[in-house]
Protein backbone atom coordinates (compact mmCIF):
# COMPACT_ATOMS: atom_id res chain seq x y z
CA UNK A 1 0.00 0.00 0.00
CA UNK A 2 1.16 3.54 -0.81
CA UNK A 3 2.88 5.09 2.24
CA UNK A 4 2.56 8.86 2.72
CA UNK A 5 4.74 10.87 5.11
CA UNK A 6 3.05 13.97 6.58
CA UNK A 7 5.46 16.53 8.05
CA UNK A 8 4.21 19.22 10.45
CA UNK A 9 1.77 16.63 11.76
CA UNK A 10 1.14 18.62 14.96
CA UNK A 11 0.56 21.84 13.01
CA UNK A 12 -2.39 23.46 11.25
CA UNK A 13 -2.08 22.21 7.69
CA UNK A 14 -0.31 18.91 8.54
CA UNK A 15 -3.18 18.12 10.93
CA UNK A 16 -5.71 18.92 8.21
CA UNK A 17 -3.86 16.67 5.74
CA UNK A 18 -3.93 13.79 8.25
CA UNK A 19 -7.64 14.29 8.76
CA UNK A 20 -8.29 14.32 5.03
CA UNK A 21 -6.19 11.18 4.43
CA UNK A 22 -8.10 9.22 7.07
CA UNK A 23 -10.20 6.54 5.44
CA UNK A 24 -8.24 6.58 2.18
CA UNK A 25 -6.50 3.39 1.11
CA UNK A 26 -2.99 4.47 2.12
CA UNK A 27 -0.57 4.04 5.00
CA UNK A 28 -0.07 7.39 6.72
CA UNK A 29 3.16 8.14 8.58
CA UNK A 30 3.10 11.28 10.74
CA UNK A 31 6.38 13.13 11.32
CA UNK A 32 6.72 14.82 14.71
CA UNK A 33 9.55 17.09 15.79
CA UNK A 34 9.25 16.15 19.43
CA UNK A 35 8.13 13.08 21.31
CA UNK A 36 4.38 12.76 21.14
CA UNK A 37 1.64 10.27 21.68
CA UNK A 38 -0.37 8.59 18.94
CA UNK A 39 -1.41 11.04 16.23
CA UNK A 40 -5.08 10.91 15.19
CA UNK A 41 -5.34 9.80 11.55
CA UNK A 42 -1.82 8.31 11.39
CA UNK A 43 -0.97 4.61 11.06
CA UNK A 44 2.66 5.22 12.02
CA UNK A 45 4.55 8.02 13.73
CA UNK A 46 8.19 8.95 13.36
CA UNK A 47 10.20 11.56 15.20
CA UNK A 48 12.47 13.76 13.07
CA UNK A 49 13.73 17.32 13.10
CA UNK A 50 14.24 19.12 9.76
CA UNK A 51 17.72 19.98 11.08
CA UNK A 52 18.68 16.31 11.60
CA UNK A 53 19.56 14.71 8.22
CA UNK A 54 19.90 11.17 9.63
CA UNK A 55 16.46 11.38 11.24
CA UNK A 56 15.00 12.68 7.97
CA UNK A 57 16.50 9.72 6.08
CA UNK A 58 14.88 7.34 8.57
CA UNK A 59 11.54 9.16 8.34
CA UNK A 60 11.62 8.92 4.53
CA UNK A 61 12.51 5.21 4.33
CA UNK A 62 9.93 3.25 2.28
CA UNK A 63 7.87 6.39 1.66
CA UNK A 64 6.08 6.81 -1.70
CA UNK A 65 4.87 10.39 -1.26
CA UNK A 66 5.22 13.20 1.28
CA UNK A 67 3.53 16.43 2.38
CA UNK A 68 6.14 19.10 3.15
CA UNK A 69 5.50 22.07 5.42
CA UNK A 70 7.79 24.00 7.74
CA UNK A 71 7.02 26.99 9.94
CA UNK A 72 7.72 30.26 8.10
CA UNK A 73 10.99 30.94 9.90
CA UNK A 74 14.14 32.47 8.47
CA UNK A 75 15.33 28.87 8.03
CA UNK A 76 12.27 27.65 6.12
CA UNK A 77 13.98 27.44 2.74
CA UNK A 78 17.14 25.79 4.08
CA UNK A 79 15.02 23.15 5.88
CA UNK A 80 12.78 22.48 2.90
CA UNK A 81 15.76 22.14 0.54
CA UNK A 82 17.31 19.62 2.93
CA UNK A 83 14.06 17.67 3.00
CA UNK A 84 13.81 17.69 -0.82
CA UNK A 85 17.38 16.37 -1.12
CA UNK A 86 16.63 13.59 1.37
CA UNK A 87 13.36 12.72 -0.40
CA UNK A 88 15.11 12.52 -3.77
CA UNK A 89 17.86 10.31 -2.31
CA UNK A 90 15.23 8.06 -0.72
CA UNK A 91 13.44 7.64 -4.07
CA UNK A 92 10.22 9.30 -2.92
CA UNK A 93 7.97 9.57 -5.98
CA UNK A 94 6.14 12.80 -5.09
CA UNK A 95 6.41 15.65 -2.60
CA UNK A 96 3.44 18.01 -2.16
CA UNK A 97 5.12 21.28 -1.16
CA UNK A 98 3.15 23.87 0.81
CA UNK A 99 4.06 27.25 -0.65
CA UNK A 100 2.05 30.50 -0.68
CA UNK A 101 -0.07 32.36 -3.24
CA UNK A 102 2.03 34.79 -5.31
CA UNK A 103 5.40 33.32 -4.30
CA UNK A 104 8.07 35.13 -6.33
CA UNK A 105 11.83 35.43 -6.05
CA UNK A 106 11.63 39.24 -6.46
CA UNK A 107 8.71 39.77 -4.06
CA UNK A 108 9.07 42.48 -1.38
CA UNK A 109 7.52 39.91 1.00
CA UNK A 110 10.23 37.72 2.52
CA UNK A 111 7.92 34.70 3.00
CA UNK A 112 7.04 34.80 -0.72
CA UNK A 113 10.74 34.96 -1.65
CA UNK A 114 11.55 31.96 0.59
CA UNK A 115 8.71 29.92 -0.90
CA UNK A 116 9.79 30.86 -4.43
CA UNK A 117 13.35 29.73 -3.66
CA UNK A 118 12.03 26.29 -2.67
CA UNK A 119 9.78 26.06 -5.73
CA UNK A 120 12.69 26.92 -8.01
CA UNK A 121 15.00 24.39 -6.33
CA UNK A 122 12.40 21.65 -6.68
CA UNK A 123 11.92 22.53 -10.37
CA UNK A 124 15.67 22.40 -11.01
CA UNK A 125 16.69 19.46 -8.83
CA UNK A 126 13.53 17.42 -8.11
CA UNK A 127 12.17 15.22 -6.71
CA UNK A 128 8.88 14.98 -8.62
CA UNK A 129 6.51 17.30 -6.85
CA UNK A 130 3.27 19.27 -6.72
CA UNK A 131 3.14 22.88 -5.50
CA UNK A 132 0.25 24.01 -3.30
CA UNK A 133 -0.04 27.79 -3.03
CA UNK A 134 -2.64 28.70 -0.40
CA UNK A 135 -3.75 32.24 0.31
CA UNK A 136 -4.09 33.69 3.83
CA UNK A 137 -5.52 31.01 6.17
CA UNK A 138 -8.98 31.81 7.61
CA UNK A 139 -7.79 29.91 10.69
CA UNK A 140 -5.11 32.59 11.10
CA UNK A 141 -7.97 34.71 12.50
CA UNK A 142 -7.89 32.44 15.56
CA UNK A 143 -4.75 34.36 16.60
CA UNK A 144 -7.09 37.32 17.25
CA UNK A 145 -9.57 35.23 19.26
CA UNK A 146 -8.20 36.24 22.70
CA UNK A 147 -8.26 39.92 21.74
CA UNK A 148 -11.78 39.63 20.31
CA UNK A 149 -13.04 37.88 23.46
CA UNK A 150 -11.45 40.54 25.65
CA UNK A 151 -12.23 43.71 23.65
CA UNK A 152 -14.88 42.80 21.05
CA UNK A 153 -12.59 43.83 18.21
CA UNK A 154 -9.35 43.39 16.35
CA UNK A 155 -7.16 45.48 14.06
CA UNK A 156 -4.82 44.97 11.12
CA UNK A 157 -3.13 47.25 8.58
CA UNK A 158 -5.23 46.13 5.61
CA UNK A 159 -7.86 48.84 5.07
CA UNK A 160 -10.68 47.80 2.74
CA UNK A 161 -8.56 45.40 0.72
CA UNK A 162 -10.12 42.02 -0.01
CA UNK A 163 -8.28 38.72 0.30
CA UNK A 164 -9.51 35.34 -0.95
CA UNK A 165 -8.63 33.67 2.37
CA UNK A 166 -8.81 29.88 2.41
CA UNK A 167 -9.98 27.42 5.04
CA UNK A 168 -7.18 25.13 6.24
CA UNK A 169 -9.54 22.14 5.99
CA UNK A 170 -9.70 22.72 2.23
CA UNK A 171 -5.89 22.81 2.05
CA UNK A 172 -5.83 19.44 3.82
CA UNK A 173 -8.37 17.93 1.43
CA UNK A 174 -6.64 19.36 -1.65
CA UNK A 175 -3.29 17.95 -0.48
CA UNK A 176 -4.88 14.55 0.21
CA UNK A 177 -6.24 14.47 -3.35
CA UNK A 178 -2.93 15.36 -5.01
CA UNK A 179 -1.13 12.76 -2.87
CA UNK A 180 -3.56 9.92 -3.58
CA UNK A 181 -4.67 10.42 -7.19
CA UNK A 182 -2.80 10.55 -10.50
CA UNK A 183 -2.06 13.54 -12.70
CA UNK A 184 -0.63 16.06 -10.25
CA UNK A 185 3.14 15.75 -10.76
CA UNK A 186 4.66 19.02 -11.97
CA UNK A 187 1.39 20.88 -11.33
CA UNK A 188 0.88 24.02 -9.25
CA UNK A 189 -2.41 24.87 -7.57
CA UNK A 190 -3.52 28.21 -6.09
CA UNK A 191 -5.74 27.41 -3.10
CA UNK A 192 -8.21 30.17 -2.21
CA UNK A 193 -11.61 30.64 -0.68
CA UNK A 194 -14.74 31.08 -2.83
CA UNK A 195 -14.57 34.90 -2.77
CA UNK A 196 -12.29 37.74 -1.76
CA UNK A 197 -13.37 39.24 1.56
CA UNK A 198 -12.45 42.36 3.50
CA UNK A 199 -11.64 42.18 7.21
CA UNK A 200 -14.85 44.15 7.82
CA UNK A 201 -16.75 41.29 6.14
CA UNK A 202 -14.78 38.84 8.32
CA UNK A 203 -15.83 40.76 11.44
CA UNK A 204 -19.46 40.68 10.26
CA UNK A 205 -19.28 36.89 9.82
CA UNK A 206 -17.84 36.54 13.34
CA UNK A 207 -20.56 38.82 14.73
CA UNK A 208 -23.31 36.74 13.12
CA UNK A 209 -21.76 33.45 14.25
CA UNK A 210 -21.10 34.50 17.86
CA UNK A 211 -24.20 36.65 18.39
CA UNK A 212 -21.93 39.47 19.65
CA UNK A 213 -20.68 42.47 17.75
CA UNK A 214 -17.10 41.99 16.55
CA UNK A 215 -15.50 45.21 15.28
CA UNK A 216 -12.61 45.54 12.87
CA UNK A 217 -10.32 48.58 12.78
CA UNK A 218 -7.77 49.44 10.13
CA UNK A 219 -4.62 50.24 12.13
CA UNK A 220 -1.27 51.69 11.06
CA UNK A 221 1.50 49.12 10.57
CA UNK A 222 3.41 50.58 13.55
CA UNK A 223 0.57 49.92 16.04
CA UNK A 224 0.02 46.43 14.61
CA UNK A 225 3.73 45.73 15.13
CA UNK A 226 3.56 47.16 18.65
CA UNK A 227 0.70 44.76 19.55
CA UNK A 228 2.81 41.81 18.43
CA UNK A 229 6.07 42.94 20.02
CA UNK A 230 7.11 40.44 22.67
CA UNK A 231 4.76 37.72 21.37
CA UNK A 232 6.72 37.20 18.13
CA UNK A 233 10.37 37.70 17.13
CA UNK A 234 11.16 40.93 15.26
CA UNK A 235 11.86 39.24 11.90
CA UNK A 236 8.45 37.56 12.02
CA UNK A 237 6.68 40.82 12.83
CA UNK A 238 8.49 42.47 9.91
CA UNK A 239 7.49 39.58 7.66
CA UNK A 240 3.85 39.89 8.73
CA UNK A 241 3.91 43.62 7.98
CA UNK A 242 5.20 42.80 4.48
CA UNK A 243 2.41 40.22 4.11
CA UNK A 244 -0.23 42.77 5.16
CA UNK A 245 1.18 45.45 2.84
CA UNK A 246 0.85 42.87 0.03
CA UNK A 247 -2.79 42.16 1.00
CA UNK A 248 -3.48 45.90 1.25
CA UNK A 249 -2.21 46.41 -2.31
CA UNK A 250 -4.93 43.99 -3.43
CA UNK A 251 -2.43 41.39 -4.61
CA UNK A 252 -4.14 38.46 -2.85
CA UNK A 253 -7.71 38.94 -4.08
CA UNK A 254 -7.75 36.46 -6.97
CA UNK A 255 -10.10 33.48 -6.68
CA UNK A 256 -8.99 30.10 -7.98
CA UNK A 257 -11.16 27.07 -8.83
CA UNK A 258 -8.53 24.58 -7.64
CA UNK A 259 -10.18 23.82 -4.28
CA UNK A 260 -13.53 22.76 -5.80
CA UNK A 261 -11.74 20.89 -8.58
CA UNK A 262 -9.50 18.96 -6.17
CA UNK A 263 -11.97 18.41 -3.33
CA UNK A 264 -15.20 17.92 -5.28
CA UNK A 265 -17.07 20.51 -3.20
CA UNK A 266 -17.25 24.32 -3.09
CA UNK A 267 -14.46 26.02 -1.15
CA UNK A 268 -15.47 26.78 2.44
CA UNK A 269 -16.26 30.44 2.92
CA UNK A 270 -15.93 32.88 5.80
CA UNK A 271 -19.44 32.24 7.15
CA UNK A 272 -18.82 28.49 7.45
CA UNK A 273 -15.44 29.15 9.08
CA UNK A 274 -17.03 31.57 11.57
CA UNK A 275 -19.88 29.18 12.42
CA UNK A 276 -17.52 26.25 12.96
CA UNK A 277 -15.17 28.27 15.20
CA UNK A 278 -17.71 30.50 16.97
CA UNK A 279 -16.89 29.09 20.41
CA UNK A 280 -13.26 30.21 20.18
CA UNK A 281 -14.38 33.81 19.53
CA UNK A 282 -17.25 33.77 22.01
CA UNK A 283 -15.22 32.52 24.97
N1 LIG B 1 -0.71 31.42 7.92
C1 LIG B 1 -1.06 31.76 6.67
O1 LIG B 1 -2.01 32.52 6.45
C2 LIG B 1 -0.30 31.16 5.51
C3 LIG B 1 -0.72 31.41 4.20
C4 LIG B 1 -0.04 30.81 3.13
C5 LIG B 1 1.05 29.97 3.38
N2 LIG B 1 1.44 29.76 4.68
C6 LIG B 1 2.59 28.88 4.91
O2 LIG B 1 2.17 27.82 5.75
C7 LIG B 1 3.32 27.29 6.41
C8 LIG B 1 2.97 27.02 7.86
O3 LIG B 1 2.03 25.98 7.86
P1 LIG B 1 1.23 25.57 9.18
O4 LIG B 1 0.36 26.72 9.58
O5 LIG B 1 0.61 24.23 8.95
O6 LIG B 1 2.41 25.48 10.24
P2 LIG B 1 2.32 25.31 11.82
O7 LIG B 1 0.90 25.14 12.27
O8 LIG B 1 3.13 26.40 12.41
O9 LIG B 1 3.04 23.92 12.04
C9 LIG B 1 4.41 23.77 11.85
C10 LIG B 1 4.74 22.30 12.06
O10 LIG B 1 6.14 22.12 11.81
C11 LIG B 1 6.69 21.43 12.92
N3 LIG B 1 8.08 21.83 13.10
C12 LIG B 1 8.55 23.02 13.56
N4 LIG B 1 9.88 23.03 13.57
C13 LIG B 1 10.28 21.81 13.12
C14 LIG B 1 11.53 21.21 12.92
N5 LIG B 1 12.69 21.86 13.17
N6 LIG B 1 11.57 19.92 12.48
C15 LIG B 1 10.43 19.25 12.23
N7 LIG B 1 9.20 19.78 12.37
C16 LIG B 1 9.13 21.04 12.81
C17 LIG B 1 5.85 21.84 14.10
O11 LIG B 1 6.02 20.91 15.14
P3 LIG B 1 5.89 21.34 16.70
O12 LIG B 1 4.42 21.34 16.97
O13 LIG B 1 6.63 20.28 17.40
O14 LIG B 1 6.51 22.70 16.81
C18 LIG B 1 4.46 21.83 13.47
O15 LIG B 1 3.93 20.52 13.40
C19 LIG B 1 4.44 28.31 6.20
O16 LIG B 1 5.31 27.84 5.20
C20 LIG B 1 3.70 29.54 5.70
O17 LIG B 1 4.50 30.37 4.90
C21 LIG B 1 0.80 30.32 5.74
Automatic annotation (TrEMBL):
InterPro entries: Ergot_Alk_Oxidoreductase, NAD(P)-bd_dom_sf, NmrA-like
Every NmrA-like domain range: 3-241
Pfam families from the UniProt entry: NmrA
Top-level taxon: Bacteria
Protein name, per record: NAD(P)-dependent oxidoreductase
Originating species: Actinocatenispora thailandica
Amino acid sequence: MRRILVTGASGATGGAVLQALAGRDVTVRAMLRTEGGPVPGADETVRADFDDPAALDAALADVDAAYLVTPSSARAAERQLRFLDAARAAGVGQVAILSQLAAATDSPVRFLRWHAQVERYAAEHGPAHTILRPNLFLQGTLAFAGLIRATGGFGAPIGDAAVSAVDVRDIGEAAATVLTTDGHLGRRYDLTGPEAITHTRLAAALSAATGREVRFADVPPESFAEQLRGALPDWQIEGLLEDYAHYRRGEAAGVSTAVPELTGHPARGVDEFARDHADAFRG
